[in-house]
């Protein structure tokens, strides 16, 4: 049977949470599990993180999935509700919501409180401190706050913003955004949240009351040019398959589609049962490492839909059936992202449904 699988170590995620808590002591953790927990399995990850103060998702469907799986933590909708109906469902499922534009306030004000007498809404009023994606401008923020505070439906108004360049330690935008957020929210009593993973790692001033770590929980460094191990993180996902064919090549023999790679000398090429149909990047460069039996071998030729090829050289220790790790334990996904001109987020989120997922809880330092 094709043994291509993603092994998710939930103990690694719990370990990474403990790293996060050390980096930002005294803050509430809103664990970001959107996009199927960055490809790691939203329900399994949320179940492993029940001691976080809250869970953050992008949208209502993700939140409902968690509630239906009996996740009891507070859940926050980072993009807020998209319609009046979603607002009603947010109340029904006891969700907190980001409010980032006037139409959402209009929906809240239009709800008849007598219909929801038992329920009240906790909101996170979002300030656009410079990212120009979501949120009220500095000029509109206080009017938005007053409208919400006059609604009987509102239980509490917390305050949030998002950093645009936190992964870049040299970027002055970070201090500027932190300053704008502080100033715009100074007269309100609500709790504040600004830091994503990179904010947690690199910008202590952005920690405020609540942090919103995502990628760091899965073991990746959020900082450009760094790897998770620099911060003491453990990779949560190991994507693996097996060597299932080996060919002996003579000098000049070509490999794969487009005959894109040519052997310079006598060598052996191994075929691994994983390809872009499984989420391995098609554009991974020649030389991208693949770990087989603990040793790195370079990718050669073009990645196909179901397989890829590596140059085994004259290593005759290898045989069919040997385990190949594409990323994860022993081979950081950050390396594969660099070799593919992308970011770890896209690789982790992009593992396809054809790949079998296995969730384990074992010491991340053991084999
Ligand atoms: C509003 C918000 N907060 C926090 C995060 C978590 O980001 P990261 O995975 O970089 O920690 C995201 C993710 O994109 C987000 O959109």
From TrEMBL:
<feature type="active site" description="Proton acceptor; specific for L-alanine">
    <location>
        <position position="257"/>
    </location>
</feature>
<dbReference type="Pfam" id="PF00842">
    <property type="entry name" value="Ala_racemase_C"/>
</dbReference>
<comment type="pathway">
    <text>Amino-acid biosynthesis; D-alanine biosynthesis; D-alanine from L-alanine: step 1/1.</text>
</comment>
<comment type="similarity">
    <text>Belongs to the alanine racemase family.</text>
</comment>
<dbReference type="InterPro" id="IPR011079">
    <property type="entry name" value="Ala_racemase_C"/>
</dbReference>
<dbReference type="Pfam" id="PF01168">
    <property type="entry name" value="Ala_racemase_N"/>
</dbReference>
<dbReference type="InterPro" id="IPR001608">
    <property type="entry name" value="Ala_racemase_N"/>
</dbReference>
<dbReference type="InterPro" id="IPR020622">
    <property type="entry name" value="Ala_racemase_pyridoxalP-BS"/>
</dbReference>
<dbReference type="GO" id="GO:0030632">
    <property type="term" value="P:D-alanine biosynthetic process"/>
</dbReference>
<dbReference type="GO" id="GO:0008784">
    <property type="term" value="F:alanine racemase activity"/>
</dbReference>
<feature type="binding site">
    <location>
        <position position="305"/>
    </location>
    <ligand>
        <name>substrate</name>
    </ligand>
</feature>
<feature type="modified residue" description="N6-(pyridoxal phosphate)lysine">
    <location>
        <position position="34"/>
    </location>
</feature>
<dbReference type="GO" id="GO:0030170">
    <property type="term" value="F:pyridoxal phosphate binding"/>
</dbReference>
<feature type="active site" description="Proton acceptor; specific for D-alanine">
    <location>
        <position position="34"/>
    </location>
</feature>
<keyword id="KW-0663">Pyridoxal phosphate</keyword>
<protein>
    <recommendedName>
        <fullName>Alanine racemase</fullName>
        <ecNumber>5.1.1.1</ecNumber>
    </recommendedName>
</protein>
<dbReference type="InterPro" id="IPR029066">
    <property type="entry name" value="PLP-binding_barrel"/>
</dbReference>
<dbReference type="InterPro" id="IPR009006">
    <property type="entry name" value="Ala_racemase/Decarboxylase_C"/>
</dbReference>
<feature type="binding site">
    <location>
        <position position="133"/>
    </location>
    <ligand>
        <name>substrate</name>
    </ligand>
</feature>
<dbReference type="GO" id="GO:0005829">
    <property type="term" value="C:cytosol"/>
</dbReference>
<feature type="domain" description="Alanine racemase C-terminal">
    <location>
        <begin position="236"/>
        <end position="360"/>
    </location>
</feature>
<dbReference type="InterPro" id="IPR000821">
    <property type="entry name" value="Ala_racemase"/>
</dbReference>
<comment type="function">
    <text>Catalyzes the interconversion of L-alanine and D-alanine. May also act on other amino acids.</text>
</comment>
<keyword id="KW-0413">Isomerase</keyword>
């Amino acid at each position: 049977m094709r043994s291509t699988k993603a092994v998710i170590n939930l103990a690694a995620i719990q370990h990474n949470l403990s790293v996060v808590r050390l980096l930002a002591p005294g803050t509430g953790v809103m664990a970001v599990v959107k996009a199927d927990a960055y490809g790691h399995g939203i329900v399994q990850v949320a179940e492993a993180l029940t001691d976080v103060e809250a869970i953050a998702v992008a949208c209502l469907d993700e939140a409902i999935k968690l509630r239906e799986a009996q996740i009891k933590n507070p859940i926050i909708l980072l993009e807020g509700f998209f319609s009046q109906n979603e607002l009603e469902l947010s109340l029904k499922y006891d969700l907190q919501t980001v409010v980032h534009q006037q139409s959402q306030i209009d929906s809240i004000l239009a709800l008849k409180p007598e219909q929801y007498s038992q329920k009240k809404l906790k909101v996170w009023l979002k300030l656009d401190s410079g990212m120009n994606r979501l949120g009220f401008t500095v000029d509109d923020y206080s009017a938005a706050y007053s409208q919400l505070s006059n609604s009987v439906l509102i239980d509490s108004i917390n305050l949030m913003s998002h950093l645009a360049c936190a992964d870049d330690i040299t970027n002055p935008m970070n201090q500027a955004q932190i300053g704008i957020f502080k100033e715009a929210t100074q007269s309100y009593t609500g709790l504040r949240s600004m830091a994503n993973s990179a904010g947690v790692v690199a910008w202590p001033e952005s920690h405020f009351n609540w942090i919103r770590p995502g990628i760091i929980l899965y073991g990746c460094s959020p900082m450009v040019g760094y790897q998770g191990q620099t911060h003491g993180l453990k990779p949560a996902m190991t994507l693996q398959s097996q060597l299932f064919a080996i060919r002996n090549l003579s000098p000049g023999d070509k490999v794969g589609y487009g005959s894109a790679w040519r052997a310079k000398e006598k060598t052996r090429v191994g075929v691994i049962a994983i390809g872009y149909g499984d989420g391995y990047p098609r554009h991974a460069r020649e030389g991208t490492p693949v770990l087989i039996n603990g040793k790195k071998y370079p990718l050669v030729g073009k990645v196909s839909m179901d397989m890829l090829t590596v140059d085994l050289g004259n290593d005759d220790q290898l045989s069919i059936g040997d385990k190949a790790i594409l990323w994860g334990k022993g081979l950081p996904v950050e390396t594969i992202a660099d070799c593919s001109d992308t970011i770890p987020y896209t690789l982790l989120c992009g593992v396809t449904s054809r790949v079998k997922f296995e969730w384990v809880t074992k010491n991340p330092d053991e084999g």
